[in-house]
Amino acid sequence: MAEGRHPTLGIGDSVTLGDLEADPDPILARMRAEEPVCFVPALDMWLVTKWDDLMHMEERPEIFTANTEPSFLARALGPNMLTKDRPEASRTRDAMLPAFQAGGVAGRFASEHLVQMADRLIDGFVEDGEGDVMASYAGPLSAGSLAAALGLDSHGWEQVWQWCKGLCSDIANFENDPELTALGDRARETLGRAIDRRIDEITEGGEGLSAIAHFIAAETEDGPLDRAEIVNNVRLMISGGINEPRDGIGLVVGTVLADQQLLDELVAEPLLWRKCVEEVFRLHSPVGTITRQATCDTTLRGKTIPAGSLVAGVIRSANLDEERWSNPGQFDLHRSEGGHAAFATGEHRCLGEWLGRQVVRVGSLRLMDRLASLQLQSDRPITLQGFEFRGPAELPCRWDRP
Ligand code: HEM
After folding, report:
1. Is the entire prediction scored with pTM above 0.85?
2. What number of other Cβ atoms are within 10 A of residue 116's Cβ?
3. Ligand 1 contacts CB of residue 79 (under 6 A)
4. Ligand 1 touching residue 248 (CB < 6 A)
5. Is residue 2's pLDDT more than 50?
6. Cα–Cα distance, 306 to 190 (Å, whole number)
7. 193 C-alpha to center of ligand 1: Å?
8. CA dist., res. 125 & res. 371, Å (int)
């Protein structure tokens, strides 16, 4: 970025990644009120914090390209559908999406295996009477579900979870910490080899019940997907499809357990669980931003964003925008103000949203059905952490042993 092209005095000058990871909401609220399009030197990035401006970014990919340079995502995963714009990105996205919808592999996994996977995990800790629901349940269920849908379950959820952690620490490495880059490199290489082996096994054995098998068999207008396209995009799925359902389960369970009136309403009317999950996604936005690059000088709210700047459309801020939502900081089960942006809204809208929603809703509901006495450990307050990926660090609970 050319020196001197950014404003020097603004809210962003004193903001660090650590501040945003610890407690982003007061900073974002101030930006929405005083400087909704704000350059943050520590991130070398503009933050766009209002709902309407996030929608503007989503609707104008020719100005806000996903094909960024540098690209944290391409560095950590290899080029993938989220590092390209349409029509280039459509080839892989259109070929891969059906596997993650209700009629595809994900639908089959959700109807035949999800509850059993949840039950096996609960059976493993039910006798303990207390524990951290994030570590013993939300993480394993989330990693195990995606691994099973992809056909990588033979590696075990722990390994898949480690890959995800390694990749994500590099993707969110806005300050270019070399240790995090090294972690990411290791995860990228070992996961890449595992996907490669799986492709070989499927090609040799003709196995047809996993998303990876679907990707191998998929036909596009320019022929089948090539190996690198499959490997890089499966890396994208592992980096983007585990933290979020994990955080989603923790956020939903934590929200419901902290509010007896809400719990009573859900017990009386289980169909409200869907609304509960959506409101939790709006209020907490497990994925913080969409990151794009300005293709030309562009003016938003009177600020000129120079061509080449990285621009983060802040989903969590848009989902709390006072001009879009009434009492945005309040959980409201009966909110009827339309859809949120937690899964994004533009051409890169989440590919795994159907599966993600199932894992969060079914996972939360099953845990609370099985452990009817589940309660938060009142002496250990829930703390949320992270900016790009935000959720509870732990969810210490207790319950009656069977
Ligand atoms: C349940 C919680 C989830 C949330 C809140 C979430 C959120 C998001 C968001 C906000 C984006 C857009 C990113 C951007 O435009 O920069 C996205 C994209 C994506 N998500 Fe998710 N996600 C979730 C679950 C999943 C799952 C389970 C998968 C597994 C396959 C997945 C795979 C993807 C992929 C591949 C993309 C890129 C799509 C594209 O570039 O066209 N996500 N997700």
Report:
1. yes
2. 10
3. no
4. yes
5. no
6. 38
7. 23
8. 11
